[in-house]
Amino acid sequence: MMRLALILAMLAPPVLAQPVMSAEEFDRYTQGKTLFYGFDGTAYGVERYLSGRRVIWSFLDGDCKEGIWYEAAGQICFVYEDRSDPQCWVFRDTGGGLVAQFEGDPTQTELYEADEIGEEMLCYGPDVGV
Questions:
Q1: Residue (of 110, 95, 73, 77) closest to 29 by Cα position
Q2: How far does the signal peptide extend, from start to end residue (predicted)?
Q3: Are 36 and 114 within 8 A, CB to CB?
């Protein structure tokens, strides 16, 4: 995890001069990959992109949420098993990785893809009681 934080700290969010990705471009770029995202120089989360526009997200805490994504009004929207309200983002391919801007609003959260960091996505099983 420390290695991830160091790599993300060295990355600066790129300038957003690139066009917004369509659903087809986003699917081509992400399908079959596991991407780590950073925010403000620190590790933010990781998402695994599966076939059929299915995803698995984690805030790097081992608690993974399954979901789906779809395109709406030029944004890529995600709905996860633990919340029904969509989380919509505008994605751009900078040539050095993806940049995601929440709701396409420059005043909102902006995430950026970390380079290949050699980390794995960890998902712990469900909590089991007695």
A1: 95
A2: 1-17
A3: yes
Q: For residue 19, what are its two tokens?
A: 């066009």
Q: For 73-103, how does the pLDDT look when each residue is reduced to its tens digit (9 = 90+)?
A: 999 999 999 998 999 999 999 998 999 999 9
Q: In angstroms, how far is CA 82 from the centroid of its own chain?
A: 17
Give dist(CA 47, CA 30) in Å, integer: 10
Which residue in 127, 95, 128 sits closest to 113, CA to CA?
Answer: 95
Distance of CA 123 to the CA centre of its chain: 16
Q: Is the pTM of this model over 0.85?
A: no
Banded pLDDT at 14 (limits 50, 70, 90): very low
